[in-house]
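quick one, 134 residues, struct below
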Amino acid sequence: MNGPVAFAYALGDQTRWRIVMLIMERTLCVCELADALRIPQSTLSSHLATLRGAGMVEVLKTEKWAFYRLAAEVRPIVKAICDHYAGELKKDATLKSDRKLIAERVALRGQTDCKGPRRAIPPKLPASADAPCC
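---
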């Protein structure tokens, strides 16, 4: 029974839910997630470890970059949850802000001109790795 409990625990935190909502839409780098969610990478890493432990995420390594996406086997479950709460999720200001910030951050991919002291800019992903998961 560890699997269902780990899955429920992973989704039982607002920050982890925000991560799941973002990686459900596209494959994202750790630095992109940290910037969009406005949390330190160390905090983000702890949340990603919980999601990995629950089998919810896949990690793609490209050079020194770690990109995360929602695991294929949990996509239907998360999609069902999103469908059930669609009205509430559409109105959520935090999720709207997260999507806006992540779009701005992802637009920087492949550029060598960093816009800040800790803002690493990851390379562009191959189209197959960056496709929406749902």
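The longest strand covers residues 57-62.
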